[in-house]
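Why this split exists: single-chain examples teach little about how molecules sit against one another. For that reason, every record in the complexes split bundles all components of an assembly together and asks for one structure covering all of them. Below is a record exactly as it appears in the raw files.
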Amino acid sequence: MNGKNIVASAYTAANEKKLKAVNPATGLQLDGDFFKASKSTVHDALTSATIAFQNYKGLNKALKAAFLNAIADEIANIGEELVNRASAESGLPLGRLQGELGRTTGQLRLFANLVAEGSWVGATIDMALPERQPLPKPDIRRMLIPIGPVVVFGASNFPLAFSVAGGDTASALASGCPVVVKAHPAHYGTSALVGGAIIKAVEKTGMPKGVFSLLYDDGYSIGTCLVQHPLTKAVTFTGSFRGGMALINLAQQREQPIPVFAEMGSINPVVFLPQAMENQAEELAKKYAASITLGAGQFCTNPGLMLAVQSPALEKFKSVLKEVIFTFPSATMLTEGIANNYSKLSTEVIHKYGIALLSASSVKNYELLNQSQAMVAQVSANDFINNPKLSEEIFGPYSLLVVAKNMSELEAATTALEGQLTITLMAEKDELKDYQSLLNKLMDKTGRLILNGVPTGVEVCAAMQHGGPFPATNDSRFTSVGSAAIYRFVRPLAYQDWDRELLPDELKDGNPLGIFRTVNQKLTNEHE
Amino acid sequence: MNGKNIVASAYTAANEKKLKAVNPATGLQLDGDFFKASKSTVHDALTSATIAFQNYKGLNKALKAAFLNAIADEIANIGEELVNRASAESGLPLGRLQGELGRTTGQLRLFANLVAEGSWVGATIDMALPERQPLPKPDIRRMLIPIGPVVVFGASNFPLAFSVAGGDTASALASGCPVVVKAHPAHYGTSALVGGAIIKAVEKTGMPKGVFSLLYDDGYSIGTCLVQHPLTKAVTFTGSFRGGMALINLAQQREQPIPVFAEMGSINPVVFLPQAMENQAEELAKKYAASITLGAGQFCTNPGLMLAVQSPALEKFKSVLKEVIFTFPSATMLTEGIANNYSKLSTEVIHKYGIALLSASSVKNYELLNQSQAMVAQVSANDFINNPKLSEEIFGPYSLLVVAKNMSELEAATTALEGQLTITLMAEKDELKDYQSLLNKLMDKTGRLILNGVPTGVEVCAAMQHGGPFPATNDSRFTSVGSAAIYRFVRPLAYQDWDRELLPDELKDGNPLGIFRTVNQKLTNEHE
């Protein structure tokens, strides 16, 4: 494993401070030396990305697709070593990481298909009307073009699917933008392995070398330099509210502002409607205990808030939930910092704000470090409304049950909610119709509405929306999961009366690529 | 004419300081009293907009289209009174304003058609695969939904097409967002007339009253309140760099950040390639003299910079340009402030930075006030590169000719350019091919590339892009002209496993609206 920084798809010679990866379950150092990047590494990476952009942006779509597929192939080729390393670095179980590996290569291939098909550029053509009165109409043709080098911050909780070759990198490369990745300090080795795979893919498919760089750091200085660098054109981040806001503030202070796409977490409220609770109390309790504790609760879509109306059925729900949580075994969290923070916040919320502890996991693995204890607490709707602190995310296997006296108090509690990635309704088919005004309000607070499911598990597909109103993300108009994630890195360019031969193929007469285009206000994929 | 503030489609009773409209050509007050809004007017407008949003956002698309068409009808009904008032307030000629009136109603009808057709919401459906291994795939359906109340700042230079019922208002209402307009102080009466037309349209089509409000102010306090108000969800602005940045900074300081769409001007560079200059010197000079002076140069797409290589043909171009500019009559500018600023900056650039005056208009109408004097100046490519001040916009009939020794010096001069709304190439068909690397670089600096035309005249159509890299606009991913302007006010919402009957029509099985949708990755408008 080569832990040197990668600049323009090549390992750098100059290396400063050595960094070591740690197994959070044991606290022991893992093999491999990694090297803190410097300000000049940042500059070299972005300079080479900018030069590569001039060739890469207009590259034939089949070549770009081949590159993305080659990255998927090379990552799949590493196989077991990658999954084992990711597990050792993150404390996540092997099975979960095998699934995540499939999702990662699947995402790359999804974007390869999107690019190869080609219609995503939204080609729009309004042909000239030279005889129009009082003025002739020019020929205008527009399509999306990439914006330039993208800085991707690896996320701790998806060491494969939202890291070096994760959804952000895949969508940025698909759009035609070079990528500079800041490796997450929680999985240096996993990052290095995937970085090596991308280098191979660059070589095999003859890409301009500057399309990929990978830098290491154990603090904030390299991330700061990357966001401040004048050649950076966009930034992606998945992590905490504090981390996201720090990057957004840095970007706003730049001479030339750039978009930051920060996914900053969410408490993903779940509303249990009365009839559903009445009929399915036990089943719902089991379903939600599993969703709350999945992956030690370290998902942006973890259900951190449940809202229900008091009833005998709710008491039954609570008793089953309490039991399952009580007997749920502890699990290793991603890092010591995350484990400490979870322990601190989940304890504080009980002691400081006087909410009732419903149940906490009693099964702790004392042989391993950084163990999370699953926990559910309860508060009245009234107290919830009056304490905005209770709406803050506690990252880990924690959930707060808000108990309302009736549906109108429950509805009042939902007005206190901030923007969310997801909101879930658990409802019987017939009762949903009775809450149209509640649904109408909830849709303005979220990016995804779920019926009778759990928010964990984010399907990677064209229709997915993973991004919601602030503070869930800072820009709810975009998604970081699914094929629409590509639209974060492009802008439209219109050509007016342009030379027919010099137009990009996407906009040429006769539609040589056979893509869907809007021609004179009509959507068509007709071609000659 | 009723000059009271309009809140929720009704004239307000409480009125503070009286404001008067002024004719910039005479300095005389025009008839009509207008009233400065207050902080509480702002709050009332945004509260009623927020309430109206709950009904308006999901309104049947035919009703929304009828509303937009009714606004167009009511504006057309005012007819001559409107054009006369706009001319008296802006100093713009009647002919130009008649054209602008047509553009304004045309824009409203364009958005009515877009909404009535319905495919713009980008409906995307990925159906469930309950048997998928290892996990079943849920049913996910996504479409664009409106974000809430939009604050529109009227622009001075388009008293009809970018003011009370201009492109921003039309696109926001089309998207499903209520609008609160801040009237531009340069045309209170025009604003009041159009505001009255919108009230009638709201009544005729039975819209929720809160969808429209119109507030007056002669300073910055109401604009500031509007941007800071927590219920405001987006802001549109067309004007100066300083004004746009002030609004952007206010928005960034909000607890909940919101998008600002600021079009902040541009110098719209025109590159004359050598062969074109050789063959068409005289024709080009006439064409560009007309574009520079059109509307007293008060267009965001005014060609403020021309770049050419020294040659005998260029000398001919200059001599014709000089003559036309010299004999070009003065014209009334929009406001005293704009006229004073133009006079100050166009004089300063000659005296302070030592650039050569090529020609200035000698025909001044001494009977009228606020007259602009057309002006062209010249600088070497080298001096241009070394003085960033020369790249700043001078709003009015001014253009700077940059003379390079050869094409490589010209190309170097273009690297000094900031982001632009438009870049124009004047070229013979054969020579364009020789400058692919120049074109490749220029495309990253602009939202629209024009061949052998002039940048003035922005066609309102689906393919138009009016928005370029910073500082031309603050967000080059969006356009303020053309039907794509609607995408500024929406965000995606995904429904997961949602009740089939409660889904919006756009996402229902069988495609009852017959719109284009992406179903299981295939674009289709098939319906039952």
